[in-house]
Amino acid sequence: MKKYLLVILLAIGCIGTALAQQNTSYRAGDLVSPVVNPDGTVTFSLQAPKAKKVEVIGDWEEAGGYGLMKLVSKKEGIWSYTTPALKSEMYMYRFIIDGVTVIDPLNPFSRRDVGNIFSIFYVGGGYGDLYQVHDVPHGTVETVWYASAETQGQRRLQVYLPPSYLSDSHKSYPVLYLLHGSGGDENAWLDLGQINRIMDNLIAQKRIREFIVVLPNGTISKPAAAGETSDNMDFRPVMTHLLPDYKNGRYEASFDEIVGFVDRTYRTDAQRHSRAIAGLSMGGFHTWMIGLNHPQLFDYYGLFSAGLDLNIGQKPFAAYSNYEQKQTTFKNSGYQLFWIACGTDDFLYNINTEFRKQLDEKKIPYQYRESTRGHLWINWREYFVEFVEKLF
Amino acid sequence: MKKYLLVILLAIGCIGTALAQQNTSYRAGDLVSPVVNPDGTVTFSLQAPKAKKVEVIGDWEEAGGYGLMKLVSKKEGIWSYTTPALKSEMYMYRFIIDGVTVIDPLNPFSRRDVGNIFSIFYVGGGYGDLYQVHDVPHGTVETVWYASAETQGQRRLQVYLPPSYLSDSHKSYPVLYLLHGSGGDENAWLDLGQINRIMDNLIAQKRIREFIVVLPNGTISKPAAAGETSDNMDFRPVMTHLLPDYKNGRYEASFDEIVGFVDRTYRTDAQRHSRAIAGLSMGGFHTWMIGLNHPQLFDYYGLFSAGLDLNIGQKPFAAYSNYEQKQTTFKNSGYQLFWIACGTDDFLYNINTEFRKQLDEKKIPYQYRESTRGHLWINWREYFVEFVEKLF
User: Fold this and answer.
1) Is the pLDDT confidence value at A12 over 50?
2) What is the pLDDT of residues B201-222, one digit of tens each?
3) Which helix H or strand E contains B371, and what residues bound it?
4) Are strands B78-82 and B89-97 parallel, antiparallel or unpaired?
């Protein structure tokens, strides 16, 4: 009886706090936000009769920047704003209600990026289609822990296994190791990069062959993402340079233990020509240093908006020593692909330009892809798509 | 340069919107919320200088109910509230700021329950310890899709594989099939039930043996959780009775295809004495109907706050036909355990009482566990712990 009463109250959009005793997990009313309109514009709505000012802040650039857009109060306390037509993408946004920044209370879909939670939406018709689920064969995503000799503990990683992996027990697969940026973790390329969906879709479109993607955690002082360690809520996500053991090279020097675990645990084609490594921001720096320390392991390298450090050779850590000599060895290893991508608005644009100059001087071959925009997931997802189409 | 400027601005807690161009994912300031104090009280804080009224609503009962607690404005626009000492648990809460219900902007940890997102926290020292991560051997969690003959499409499920599964390739394991409630999905027992952590911890404490847990999706009209289907954001999470094909018995009748997939794909001990099934609310109803339709498959049954329907035998669907006869077959199948649990404040308490009367009349053996409280994850997590200690 109470159950049906609840349904009726929901239907008329007036669930009260009394019923919250049984279940606080119902959304009231018919208002929907956001609505992606057929013309690619997006309408946000918020019921906040007592608010004085409501803004939306998101990562689209079509409105001439990433600044604040003000919602307009319509009637009965419902605020609303419609964007210009947006390019096909996955977007993240939040509301600022009288100065308090929050997710859209009407949107059940969210993602955490470093220390904040954002509401998300997709605009289809282009790249945004690759980031959404379609009725195609789906791969498996595994959250696994491996024993690290380096840290003397377990460490967590995510693995994407392509669609045929579970059904075809004789096939072996190439592996891409894909590294997150500062403040990120082993979940970032799934939650924000949507790489399991991209892989499913590109495989279904026969744009890539099937391969495994491994997402390690590159914060050596922490075994796993915030909230997934024994610190639990005491470890709140922060930028990695605020944590111990930042840039001491232990992660890069010991990366072969991750490759070893993966080759032991999964049906991999455990050869150099079937291994790639790429990363964004700090993960691009890691990719470069891992390549220098383990040039025999990988045949493909991707640096996405890499957080390079041109003075790293001066740091007193084994992974960073003999920096010049390691570059010569790296060059002579004869890799298939060294792919560097950066956006013109990225705060790391200049250091990437300087880095490429050094590579030119040393005649270390690479391919360069310059995009517009800054240090954003919008770029990294597109770089991922472009990069994986060149692999294996 | 910009990077270090950002760090400095973060350090002094005054990041502005200008820098949001590069990254909108930093949390400003030193304020922390919530803080679980050593005495088990919990302090919430919110910076909202322009707000007129701030409340917190959560699922703890220590304050004499689940009602609203008002935050008090302290100084410089910071609102604060401290709970009484709370029992060790995982708790969910939201703020209501001038009538708008949102998650805690300072808490990076959240969970979706049906259509809403909640902030979460843990109080340790009891059950809450089981729901958090500890430095114990961790199992693997897999998100997999299986081909359903019933729906002629792929369907998504989650699998927990115990710690030794990846390393010991010869061992086989019993399986618990664990079903979600209305509005839930294959993620619910992980995100809200924390069963991967409970399993890791109970196994480490040697309170249970290692076994596999399978979390299927019980909404037959949808192949996966909201946001994980080709409907993408068009399918917003709702209570299951609002979707097509509710209570037509197709899920229960075809459940053997899930068991078949699991036995083909994983190293299971594919025998009745190594199979259990349990579910909460709608999943408790499903468990009962699956038991009646496949009594040869399972030796252990768990009904947690089951959403039973005493008139189900009158519905014109194969899974629900011959209801009386199926109960006799079920009774004669000689199962190990039929465990029923319900809270005294649950809106399904009376129907569970009525159901048990019918079982008594038919001399169908069961064990009954009555708890306090209502239709809440707090109960279901505890029921899970109690139930799995009785298995295999």
Assistant:
1) no
2) 999 999 999 999 999 999 999 9
3) strand B367-371
4) unpaired
A11 in any annotated domain: yes
Same-domain status, A230 and A274: yes
Contact B31, B80 (CB under 8 A): no
- B132 found inside a domain: no
B115/B178 same-domain check: no
b/e per residue, B334-362, with b = 16+ CB within 10 A? ebebbbbbbbebbbbbebbeebbeebeee
Whether residues A152 and A119 share a domain: the answer is no
In one-letter notation, the amino acid at residue A220 is I
Q: Which residues pair with A95 in a beta bridge?
A: A56, A102
Nearest residue of B to residue A50, measured between CA atoms:
B98
Tokens of A248: 């001491």
> In this predicted model, what pLDDT tens digit does every residue of B122-156 receive, in sequence order?
999 999 999 999 999 999 999 999 999 999 999 99
Min Cα–Cα distance to chain A from B350, Å: 10
Nearest CA distance, B114 vs chain A (angstrom) = 6
Q: Which of A17, A153, A166 sits opposite B144 (nearest CB)?
A: A166
Q: How many CB atoms lie within 10 A of CB B49?
A: 12
Contact assignment for A49 to B109 by CB distance below 8 Å:
no
Distance between CA atoms of residues A271 and B169, nearest Å: 23
For chain B, the domain total comes to 3
ipTM: 0.93
CA distances from A369 to A56, A90, A342, A380, B208 (A): 32, 21, 7, 12, 54
How close does chain B come to A67, measured CA to CA in Å? 7
Give the total residue count for chain A: 392
Residue B92: exposure state from Cβ atoms within 10 A (0-12, 13-18, ≥19): buried
Same domain for B118 and B169? Answer: no
CB contact under 8 A, B21 and A374: yes
Is the dihedral angle over the CA atoms A31, A33, A37, A43 positive or is it negative?
A: positive
Q: Please give the interface size between A and B, counted as residue pairs whose CB atoms are below 8 Å apart.
A: 224
Domain span at residue B3?
1-30
State whether A48 and B98 contact (CB < 8 Å): yes
Nearest-by-CA chain A residue for B347:
A2
Nearest CA-CA partner of A208 in A9, A346, A387, A40: A387
Do B253 and B279 contact (CB within 8 A), yes or no? no
Whether A347 sits inside 8 A of B142 (CB atoms) is no
Element of type H or E holding B214: strand B212-215
Which chain A residues touch B154 with a CB distance below 8 Å?
135, 137-138
- Round the average pLDDT of chain A to a whole number and report it: 91
Mutation for B interface: A233, A236, A285, A379, most B CBs within 10 A: A233
Helix (H, G, I), strand (E, B) or coil at B335: coil
Contact assignment for B57 to A17 by CB distance below 8 Å: yes
In a domain, A132, yes or no: no
pTM of the full structure: 0.93
Residue B116 lies in a domain: yes
Nearest CA in chain B to A136: B154
